[in-house]
């Protein structure tokens, strides 16, 4: 095993959140298309991060699979000065989403630019991922980042070697004899903004 103590490192599944960034095609009006920066996140996103919403409830905005949160800029592009809440937005030509929130742009944060935020339930369809995003055989590595909220005083980096041993027994890319051996790294979020490597800085 991983040598995890009897008291769990995480109090519940609510203390983790997967996030995936991808471009998506947004329909403006009847014909015009625009590529936007999409972020797909688990419904726990606003439990782990305290980003505010201009409109909508942080606790319910991502609960339904067809929910979409728009940046203020994208909301103005689509709806002008009208209230966007409850309206429908089309991504990828025909996928319909219901606006459940509007948020300020994630400027000056660790997160990438985000024009629209959707549930990870739709990530496979929106990214042409072939169902691998939620593949229980763990064939989805490399697709997303996972944020973990640990108990106070817990340093997950102490478990990094054990986790990598676990992965090397199950996933070819993590095996020591792989042509491109990979290694999982754990970093406290407070260190990530200025980290010289990583996908979000």
What layout of secondary structure does this protein have?
Blueprint (H helix, E strand, L loop, with lengths): L15 E13 L3 E10 L3 H4 L18 E5 H8 L8 E4 L3 E9 L12 E4 L3 H4 L18 E4 L11 H9 L20 H4 L9
Parallel strand pairs: 2-6, 3-5
Antiparallel strand pairs: 1-2, 1-7, 3-6, 4-5
Short description:
The protein is an alpha/beta fold. Helix content is 14%, strand content 24%. Strand 4 and strand 5 form a beta hairpin.
Would you give an account of this structure?
With 201 residues, the protein is an alpha/beta fold. Helix content is 14%, strand content 24%. It has five helices and seven strands. The chain has a seven-stranded mixed beta sheet. Strand 4 and strand 5 form a beta hairpin. The longest helix has 9 residues. The relative contact order is 0.18. The N terminus is likely disordered.
Q: What would the keywords be for this entry?
A:
201 residues, 7-stranded mixed beta sheet, disordered N terminus, alpha/beta
Strands in their spatial order, largest beta sheet: 4-5-3-6-2-1-7
Mean pLDDT: 81
Number of helices: 5
Helix-and-strand structural type = alpha/beta
Please indicate the percent range of residues in DSSP E strands (runs of 2 or more): 15-25%
